[in-house]
Amino acid sequence: MSVRIDALDRKILSALQEDASRSLDEIAREVGSSKTPVWNRIRKMREAGVIGQQTVILDPEALGFTACFFVLIRTSEHEADWQEKFLQVLRARPEVLEAHRLAGEIDYILKVRVENARAYDAFYQAMISEVKVFNVTALLSMEEIKSTTMLPL
């Protein structure tokens, strides 16, 4: 299903990105509309896939996940079977917050959040025991300067 996004939809989406836990009344007031049209627009955008899963954002450091690694992976395997196995391994690992297939020298980049370097090593050892990779480089993030899930609407 396709949906056209207009200026009011963008205002609604911006409001939801800031805080989706607010009431429809609050969002409607903020965007200059009433509750029913805002609800209908949100429903249509959900049905069209513009709005996905709603969740909460947790503070990883407050929960003990103080180490963030960016893992660069090069592989000499490009067959469909290998790729399917690799994707299964990534999806099964809760430490992997993001995974991207890249163009260029590096085939994949992962964002991995763990308690510490020892936990990263356990993750690394488990991953390479399940799937063959040519080269892995782990980069420890020293400081998170910016992190957001908000799109620039």
Automatic annotation (TrEMBL):
GO biological process: regulation of DNA-templated transcription; response to amino acid
Keyword flag NAD: no
InterPro entries in UniProt: ArsR-like_HTH, AsnC-type_HTH_dom, Dimeric_a/b-barrel, Tscrpt_reg_AsnC-like, Tscrpt_reg_AsnC/Lrp_C, Tscrpt_reg_HTH_AsnC-type_CS, WH-like_DNA-bd_sf, WH_DNA-bd_sf
Molecular-function GO term, any one: sequence-specific DNA binding
The HTH asnC-type domain, residue ranges: 5-66
GO cellular component, one term: cytosol
Gene3D superfamilies: 3.30.70.920, Winged helix-like DNA-binding domain superfamily/Winged helix DNA-binding domain
Entry protein name: Lrp/AsnC family transcriptional regulator
